[in-house]
Amino acid sequence: MTTSNSMSGAKHLLCPLCLAKQVQQPLLTLSEDLRSLACEQKHSFDIAKQGYVNLLPVQQKKSQHPGDSKEMVLARKQFLGLGYYQPLVDALVSSTQQHLSSITSPVILDAGCGEGYYTDNLHRALAESNDELTAYGFDIAKPAVLEAAKRNRSICFFVSTIKAVPIAPHSCDVIISIFSPINTEQFQHMLKPGGKLIVLCAGKNHLHQLKSLLYTSTADYDDDKFLAPLDSHFTLSERSSIQHTMNLTSQHDIMSLLAMTPHFWRASPEAKQQLETINQLLVDIDVQRMIFTPKTLEQTEHE
Ligand SMILES: C[S@@+](CC[C@H](N)C(=O)[O-])C[C@H]1O[C@@H](n2cnc3c(N)ncnc32)[C@H](O)[C@@H]1O
Ligand SMILES: [Zn+2]
Question: Which CATH number describes the domain made up of 66-301?
Answer without folding.
Answer: 3.40.50.150
